[in-house]
Amino acid sequence: MNKYDVKISNRLKRTEGQLKGILKMIADEKECKDVVTQLSAVRSSIDRVMGLIVAENLVDCVKTDMSTGISSEESIQQAIDLLVKSR
């Protein structure tokens, strides 16, 4: 079972606010460089959230996978693959 604490939710809410800000920037025809800078910040924020989720839930995920016959090594590799694939 995955556990998501309040800090993950808060980070995602901040990211949501950033995205809304980017939409406003686009509507206001702000400079491309400024929009891209904010998009980069959103990407970094999402990467941090993904890392937190994997780090905080890895043990539970491995236990769950092992109960279904997946080895701990394979389960950990799957988590790594998810992180690497997203970049």
From TrEMBL:
Pfam families: Trns_repr_metal. GO terms for molecular function: DNA binding; metal ion binding. It comes from Brochothrix campestris FSL F6-1037. Transmembrane segments: none annotated. This is Cytoplasmic protein. InterPro entries: Metal_Tscrpt_repr (IPR003735), Metal_Tscrpt_repr_sf (IPR038390). One of its GO terms (biological process) is negative regulation of DNA-templated transcription.
